[in-house]
Amino acid sequence: MPVFNAFLPCRSGSERVKKKNTREFCGIEGGLTRIKLQQLARVPELASIIVSTNDPDVVDIARVVAAETGAAIDIIERPEHLGTSQTRTDDLILYAAEIAPEGVLLWTHTTSPFCRAELFSRAIHAYTAALEDGAHDSLMSVSPIRSFVWTADGPLNYDRTKEKWPRTQTLPILYDVNSALFMCDRDLMRRHGDRIGAKPVLFEMDHVDSLEIDWEEDFAFAEKVGEVMVREGRKWW
């Protein structure tokens, strides 16, 4: 099995959700950053966790988690020009490929709080199996869409001239790239300038595991989901 390293980008100055990476979440101090680092620290296949940040609060949280868990957390100060709201993802990808050690880079985000350690492990094994088969060169997480999908010009995944409202179970499945995780060899990232290669395997996740926080209402909703999971005895951090 190749060497796997995680990459966790955490810039300061979130505009849509203020302090989304570090503010308290479900009563957990250190919030989404602490949760994600604790999840990654419990992934046995990971050799290291790279935290790329320009936020001193993230640095403090990462140091605490490293001391508590013994995980190999490498905190790398991100250049300011790569830590603004105008930073292009393409530029950050090239930067990540330069600072990452040799091996496979597992790119994830704090904003997917329910993508747990066991899901990361499962994705790593799915990636390894896909590469051994030779059919794929990378992996990305997706959420299947089994519903009526339209653009402004009409339906995208069915033909209303044949059937106006087909059964949803007969519709072709579309996939939402949920951004919970991407996996690609570092050298392939450099060549493609991307978090995936030409033939990524699609790692399906359900809608709770892949829930993503982009807006303030997402943060509030995710907290409610987390509280319900705690009451049901389902630990996710």
Describe this structure in words.
The chain has 237 residues and is α/β, with parallel strands linked by helices. The chain has a single domain, classed as Spore Coat Polysaccharide Biosynthesis Protein SpsA, Chain A. Helix content is 32%, strand content 23%. Strands 3-2-1-4-8-5-9 form a 7-stranded mixed beta sheet. A hairpin with a 2-residue loop joins strand 6 and strand 7. The longest helix is centred in the middle third of the chain and has 17 residues, at 117-133. The two termini are 26 Å apart.
The shape is: globular
Q: Figure out the total of helices.
A: 6
Largest sheet: 7 strands, mixed
Nearest-integer average pLDDT: 95
Which structural class fits the helix and strand makeup? alpha/beta
Order of helices and strands: EHEHEHEHEEEEHEH
Strand content: 15-25%
CATH level 1 class label: Alpha Beta
The CATH homologous superfamily is called Spore Coat Polysaccharide Biosynthesis Protein SpsA, Chain A
Using DSSP, what is the number of strands? 9
Oligomer: single chain
Relative helix content: 25-40%
Low-confidence stretches: none
* End-to-end gap: 26 Å
* Rg computed from alpha carbons, rounded to a whole number of angstroms: 19 Å
Across the major sheet, the strand order is 3-2-1-4-8-5-9
